UniProtKB/TrEMBL annotation:
SUPFAM superfamilies assigned to the protein according to its UniProt record, in alphabetical order: FAD/NAD(P)-binding domain (SSF51905), Succinate dehydrogenase/fumarate reductase flavoprotein, catalytic domain (SSF56425)
Domain of life: Bacteria
Domain FAD-dependent oxidoreductase 2 FAD-binding: 3-430
Cofactor names: FAD
One Pfam assignment: FAD_binding_2
Name recorded for this polypeptide: FAD-dependent oxidoreductase 2 FAD-binding domain-containing protein
GO MF terms held by the record: oxidoreductase activity
Keywords: FAD, Flavoprotein, Oxidoreductase
Length: 472
């Protein structure tokens, strides 16, 4: 019999599988995707947010625990479990040596990501390289990997202990199990239900694009909800950013993100602004714009910049709509020309230009304008002008399984003896809402390793107990 069955194929699942194998357990990993699409959303990641008290290789200066915690507290609005959040934060300070041993390499941040040089460690080759390194290491250590093996349901005893997983190819028993197969962000029916119908009669969830894998359907999350597992999180909350409206339905990844928001203004389809584009550094605010866009009419918005912004942000895969004048730009993107021009001119008149510096919270701001633009406010007055239509791009959902520091799945407050969870399926314990760059990988790495350790321990205990029974 298998000691540890890991269900999932992304960062958290691989961390669990590697850790359990290092602890001496036999491990089988089930990945729903075919080999070429393996890795879940992790294949689209770039970095890991890391606590450190002094400069460490690719990380400059220091990023102490309390600052990391305050950054997380700010974006979540306090909807977070402080004990588990601090557990993740402390783990992030010591995981990179382990990652390197499994083939992950790091590099300094490149132009366009320098705001993160103190807080985030970037993967050489991105998330795809990280995933490939972990799979190579898993094979070398003897982890059995089965692709195209989605799990339909679990077999549990009356106490919530794992017995077996059911797949289309048969029943798989194991002494313990780690669930790390994502949220429900790829399940469009569930997204529609979670977001419901708004006051305009729209169903916002129907207009979402999925930044990552199409395989995160939430099958086992729903199964466990129906079988009494303890749940945490709001189904409408998640990591949701503004991405190019021309992006594919699935797997658009990082290259479809629109990163020029803080350098211009954003208007909805009524050609009016609706939020402060310069509230804070982009890595701390990029993940609010998906939800903001989801609340707008038609779930669409337009990021507007002029020639002065070109070269100051990571260019997306699709070029912006370009025009020599503002009225021409309005016509090209289908907005009311008079209202659009009035919005831009009102904003321009409100700008108070100081010393523009996109690397700091500068003194360029607006006065007597609602909503205000707090930093980096410069008139949009230098052609050519550009517009990027954006829609909500969901990365992962926060509805998940409630855990404690052991990563055990809980039923009526009682932890399972041998069923554990990591990654997106439990991230809602730390992320009640909001997001800050790299923290999803921090959560997945920390709880993947915790779940792998605990699953190996539970499996080996059960193995020993079974051997004793046989001897008796």
């Amino acid at each position: 019999m298998i000691d540890v069955l890991v269900i999932g194929g992304g960062n958290a699942a691989l961390c669990a599988a590697l850790t359990a194998r290092e602890a001496g357990a036999s491990v089988t990993l089930l990945e729903a995707a075919p080999r070429e699409w393996r890795g879940g959303n992790s294949q689209h990641t770039r970095n890991l947010r890391c606590m450190h008290d002094e400069p460490q290789d690719v990380l400059v200066d220091a990023y102490p625990e309390e600052e990391f915690w305050q950054d997380l507290l700010k974006v979540t609005g306090g909807i977070t479990d402080e004990h588990l959040a601090r557990l993740v934060i402390r783990h992030s300070s010591s995981c990179r040596d382990w990652m390197r041993r499994h083939g992950v390499n790091f590099q300094p941040p490149l132009s366009g990501t320098l705001h993160l040089s103190r807080t985030n460690a970037f993967f050489m080759g991105g998330g795809k390289a990280l995933v490939n390194a972990y799979y190579r290491s898993a094979r070398q250590l003897g982890v059995e990997i089965r692709y195209e093996t989605p799990v339909d349901s679990l077999e549990l005893d009356d106490n919530g202990n794992f017995i077996a997983a059911h797949t289309s190819s048969g029943r798989i028993e194991a002494r313990s199990c780690v669930l790390a197969c994502g949220g429900f962000e790829s399940n469009r029916e569930w997204l529609r239900e979670a977001w419901g119908q708004n006051e305009r009669g729209e169903w916002p969830g129907e207009n979402f694009l999925i930044r990552g894998t199409r395989f995160n359907q939430g099958v086992l999350l729903k199964f466990l909800m129906q079988h009494g597992a303890d749940i945490i999180g709001d189904p409408s909350q998640g990591h949701c950013v503004a991405i190019d409206a021309r992006a594919p339905l699935y797997d658009g990844g990082i290259c479809t993100r629109i990163d020029c928001v803080s350098l211009g203004i954003v208007v909805n389809r009524d050609a009016v602004r609706f939020y402060d584009e310069g509230e804070d550094f982009w890595p701390k605010r990029y993940a609010i714009w998906g939800r903001l866009t989801a609340l707008q009419p038609g779930q669409i918005a337009y990021s507007i910049i002029d020639a002065k912004a070109i070269g100051r942000f990571m260019p997306p895969v699709f070029p912006g709509i370009q025009a020599d004048t503002l009225p021409e730009l309005a016509r090209k993107i289908g907005l009311d020309e008079a209202q659009f021009v009035q919005t831009v001119e009102t904003y321009n008149a409100a700008c108070r230009i100081g010393t523009f510096d996109h690397t700091v919270l500068d003194d360029c701001h607006t006065e007597n304008l609602q909503p205000a633009k707090t930093h980096w406010a410069r008139p949009i007055d230098t052609g050519p002008f550009y517009a990027f239509a954006v829609r909500p791009g969901i990365t992962f959902t926060y509805l998940g399984l409630k855990v404690d520091e052991t990563a055990a799945v809980r039923f009526n407050g009682r932890p399972s003896e041998n069923l554990f969870v990591a990654g997106e399926m439990m991230a809602g314990n730390v992320l009640g809402k909001g997001y800050t760059a790299g923290v999803g990988m921090s959560i997945g790495t920390a709880f993947g390793r915790i779940a792998g350790t605990q699953a190996a321990k539970a499996a080996l205990q059960r193995h020993q107990t079974g051997a004793l029974h046989e001897a008796a």
